[in-house]
Design brief:
- The protein is built from 10 helices and 6 strands, in the order αβαβββαααααααββα.
- With 262 residues, it is mainly alpha-helical.
- The protein folds into 2 domains: 65 residues, Rossmann fold, CATH 3.40.50.1970; 185 residues, Dehydroquinate synthase-like, alpha domain (Up-down Bundle), CATH 1.20.1090.10.
- The chain starts with 5 loop residues before the first helix and ends with a helix.
- The relative contact order is 0.12.
- Bound molecules: nicotinamide-adenine-dinucleotide.
- Nicotinamide-adenine-dinucleotide (NAD) binds next to helix 1, helix 2 and helix 3.
Amino acid sequence: MPWAAGVVGDLAGFVASTYMRGISLIQVPTTLLAQVDSSVGGKVAVNHPLGKNMIGSFYQPQLVFIDVHVLKTLAPREVRAGLAEVIKYGVIHDGDFFSYLEGQLQQILALDEGVLSYVIKKSCAIKARVVEEDEREDGVRAFLNFGHTIGHALEALTFYRNYRHGEAVAAGMVAAAEIAVERGLLEEEEKNRLKKLLDRAGLPVTVPLAADEILSILPRDKKARHGRPRFVLPLALGSVNLFEDVETDEIRAALERCRKTE
Ligand SMILES: NC(=O)c1ccc[n+]([C@@H]2O[C@H](COP(=O)([O-])OP(=O)(O)OC[C@H]3O[C@@H](n4cnc5c(N)ncnc54)[C@H](O)[C@@H]3O)[C@@H](O)[C@H]2O)c1
């Protein structure tokens, strides 16, 4: 069976969107990340030396075929990286789902098919609902970028070699939660719950690079507006909002707290 993980799905999707001005596309994702995220929503792109996902389009598949059995051969590290995006859905949209993940984490990591099917369906439903409302990312679709502002910086600064995408997003979610706590938007206890779940899932919860290095690259983020980074910040486990007014000092302070392992 050919593998259509995130990278292959993005590439094949982009080719399908341009070949003969577009041919039918069916996504058959085989990593957890591709099943819960990249195969749904229609974003297809390839990287360019000037930036990640620089050449691409929006192109909806006619069908996404997901078989949880294929995850049995997936490396545990890849399963954990996909789980970061699943946890993200709980934070941005559904506090009950977040609690469910806290309770079922061991079954998920053990690839229990019943639990996994539920988790994948729920994740796809959340993503589909957001994309239906805002396909072109003029509004709520940006919420899906929770953890991605710092996450993308980590990936770029380490030349896409050190982090799986989901791992960088995990550390980015903790950094965003730190900013939210400092702004009085999120209870410290909620941030700790997020950090603990990510940690139990074997995902990074610290940002080991110097704050200045990260700050220097943020204005180049594709999502930045007039050189100002945009942050999706949690207000609670289950609710987020988009902020374009996060000051450099706030980001620096949060990153410094994230360097500590505790
Ligand atoms: N289009 C989108 O909306 C979107 C969203 C999130 C991420 N992405 C992109 O997705 C990419 C990451 O995708 P990914 O996490 O699927 O990684 P990946 O495509 O690199 O696959 C990870 C590894 O797993 C292997 N593999 C795939 N399925 C397997 C299976 N069933 N058993 C054993 N090995 C298997 C692959 O050969 C590869 O070595 C990144 O480039 C990211 O930018 C796109």
